[in-house]
Give the backbone structure.
Amino acid sequence: MKVHLRQIPAEGLHVEGEEDCLLPELEAEGVRCAGLLRYNIDIGVSAGALWANGTLVQPAELRCVACLESFRHDINVKAFAMHEELHGPETFDLTPFMREDVLLNLPPHPH
């Protein structure tokens, strides 16, 4: 998800929507996206840095480590937050930060 910095007002910007799956390479590991990533994020610029916080939900199909059956699970990121210094571009890509938080919230041993 790319953000145009000039379109962010001084009081910040609230965005909600859906993005394509951020985890396509994990299918070999038994993790398959079962829908679009849903996001609800507040974004702002302060002191030469971009900040964002909100929630992310990625529906996924996981494989149980005990019985190897697939099941549906929503990977919930209830406290997505990032703060990054800006170095000049007009746009900023939040995708790597969103992807990292979704990966960190994958269950380590899905049941």
About this structure: The chain has a mean pLDDT of 90. The chain has one helix and seven strands.
